[in-house]
Structures are given as structure tokens and as C-alpha cells.
């Protein structure tokens, strides 16, 4: 049964990715990309990585995709984007992403309603991940924090102009 | 519900398909936002391969690598989107073909 769920989620992920990368409109592509990430999160869950699945939804489909949304919204302001928004409320634009997400929701409801525990018996649980992450991989954690700091500094430097404009002075 | 029911090869095939889609997207699209999205898809496919291998051998290392990939993706996206904003400001376009010269 887990196998059928796996193939369904994989099909949703691949289909949503194809649709995401062939859209002309960046906002539409983003919706499909989020569906694709949710599909991959279901794959992680079925593979026995519940912690990674949760991180995929919260950090990837949540935080990182929100950055894309911010930038896309920043780039097209005004009348054009208002017309865009009105068009997005049209049912036919979110019919397909809605259907794909509904498939994933159906899988979730099915797994939750099952009497068997939704987490596979041989899953790698968060405790093990944490012990490995802060045990042999602690140097990697330090390097990741340095990388994130560098990313923060780089993003601040590149976005400086926009920050300065909002505060009302030029530099 | 046993993870062993899912063959490792099938997961790797899905990960390869996703990676190939990202690569094709990166090569065919010229809009810098779509190129960044393609990079995300490729990183995600690599993460799927790591998770699949970790699940196959019952090791936590796969998920540890996923956490690192997440950190890399976050850093890459923040700097990449900063570059998108700069490119838009300086060239009034998001087309990569107009930004092929590093200076000028």
C-alpha cells in the first residue's frame, strides 16, 4: 500500500515540477513549485524520514518559497499586478495545483485514518538525526552557520539600496 | 507500512527525473527567477537521493545531509534573489542574455 502512495506522490511531484518550469508566469510557476515540494515531503515521510518531511514543508515550501513570493511581488507592482491578482482569483488558474494538492491531502487523510502508525516501523527518528547532527557532524553545523552568516551579509549588501530608499535617504 | 517495500532504485529514478527536469529548466529558461527555481528543484532532487539512501541503510546521515542542503538552499536563494533585485534595478530586465557581460 505504501508503494502505491509512493508512486502517486512521485507522480504529483514530477508533474508539478514539469508544470512549474514550463509556465510563463512566475507566480503560477511558484504555486506548482510549492506543490512539487509538498509532494517530495510526502515521499520523505513514506521513506521513513518524518523530521525531513516536516522540515521540507516548514523551511522549504514555507520559508524559502516565501522569499520568492516577496521578490516576485516586489518586481511587479501597480496596475499590472492588480490585473494579475484579479486573474489569479479565476478558478481555472488554480484548478490544477488545487487538484494536485488535493491528491496529497487524500494521501495524508488515508495514512492518518489507518489503524497502523503512519510512521514506518523502521523510520529514522528525529532523536537519531539530532545525535548524528551534533555528534560526528558538528563541524558541518558550524560551517552551515558560517555559510548562513555569509548569505545574510551578502543579501544585506545586495539589498542595501532598497533598504536605504525605504528609510528616505540616498547613499 | 515498511519503508523496505519501496525499492531504492525507484526512489533514485524519481530523484534523477527531478534533477534532469531542473537541469533542463536551468538550460532552457533565460528568466533569472526561473533559473533560481530550477536550482531549487535540483537541490531538492539531491536531497531526495540522500534521504532515500539514508532510509535504505537505516542511517541518520541522509537526514543530516538534508539539513545541510536546506541551509545551502536558504543561503543561495537569499543571495540569488538579492542579485535579481540588483539586476532589475540596473538593467530593467530579468533576461540572463542581457547580463552575459560581467562589467558594463
Radius of gyration of chain B: 17 Å
Secondary-structure-based class of chain A equals mainly alpha
Tell me, rounded to a whole number, the average pLDDT of chain B.
Answer: 88
Question: What percent of residues of chain B are in strands?
Answer: under 5%
Q: How is the biggest beta sheet of chain B arranged?
A: none
Instruction: Report low-confidence residues of chain A grouped into runs of 5 or more.
Output: none
Secondary-structure blueprint:
The complex is a heterodimer of chains A (171) and B (104).
Chain A: H1 2-22, H2 26-46, H3 50-75, H4 79-88, H5 91-113, H6 126-133, H7 138-158, H8 160-167
Helix pairs in contact in A: 1-2, 1-5, 2-3, 2-5
Chain B: H1 8-28, H2 32-56, H3 61-91
List descriptors.
heterodimer, A: 171 residues, mainly alpha, 0% strand, B: 104 residues, 3 helices
Give an overview in words.
The complex is a heterodimer of chains A (171) and B (104). The longest helix of chain A has 26 residues, at 50-75. Chain A has 171 residues and is an all-alpha fold. Chain A contains 8 helices and no strands. Chain B is mainly alpha-helical and 104 residues long. In chain B, helix 2 (32-56) runs antiparallel to helix 3 (61-91). Chains A and B meet through helix 1, helix 2, helix 3, helix 6 and helix 7 of A and helix 1, helix 2 and helix 3 of B.
Outline:
Chain A has 171 residues and is mainly alpha-helical.
Amino acid at each position: 500500500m505504501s508503494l502505491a502512495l509512493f508512486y502517486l506522490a512521485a507522480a504529483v511531484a514530477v508533474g508539478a515540477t514539469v508544470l512549474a518550469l514550463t509556465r510563463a508566469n512566475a507566480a503560477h510557476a511558484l504555486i506548482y513549485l510549492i506543490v512539487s515540494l509538498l509532494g517530495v515531503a510526502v515521499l520523505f515521510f513514506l521513506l521513513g524520514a518524518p523530521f525531513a518531511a516536516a522540515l521540507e514543508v516548514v523551511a522549504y515550501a514555507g520559508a524559502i518559497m516565501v522569499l520568492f513570493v516577496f521578490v516576485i511581488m516586489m518586481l511587479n507592482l501597480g496596475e499590472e499586478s492588480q490585473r494579475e491578482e484579479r486573474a489569479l482569483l479565476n478558478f481555472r488558474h488554480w484548478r490544477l495545483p488545487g487538484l494536485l494538492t488535493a491528491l496529497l491531502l487524500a494521501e495524508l487523510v488515508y495514512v492518518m485514518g489507518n489503524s497502523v502508525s503512519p510512521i514506518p516501523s523502521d523510520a529514522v527518528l528525529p532523536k537519531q538525526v539530532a545525535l548524528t547532527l551534533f555528534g560526528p557532524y558538528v563541524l558541518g553545523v558550524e560551517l552551515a552557520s558560517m555559510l548562513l552568516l555569509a548569505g545574510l551579509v551578502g543579501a544585506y549588501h545586495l539589498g542595501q539600496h532598497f533598504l536605504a530608499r525605504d528609510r528616505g535617504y540616498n547613499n | 507500512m515498511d519503508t523496505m517495500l519501496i525499492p531504492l532504485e525507484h526512489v533514485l529514478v524519481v530523484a534523477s527525473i527531478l534533477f534532469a527536469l531542473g537541469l533542463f529548466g536551468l538550460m532552457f529558461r533565460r528568466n533569472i527567477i526561473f533559473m533560481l527555481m530550477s536550482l531549487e528543484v535540483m537541490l531538492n532532487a539531491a536531497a531526495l537521493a540522500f534521504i532515500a539512501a539514508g532510509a535504505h541503510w537505516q542511517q541518520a546521515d541522509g537526514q543530516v545531509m538534508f539539513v545541510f542542503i536546506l541551509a545551502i538552499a536558504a543561503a543561495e536563494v537569499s543571495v540569488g534573489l538579492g542579485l535579481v533585485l540588483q539586476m532589475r534595478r540596473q538593467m530593467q530586465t530579468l533576461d540572463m542574455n542581457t547580463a552575459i557581460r560581467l562589467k558594463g
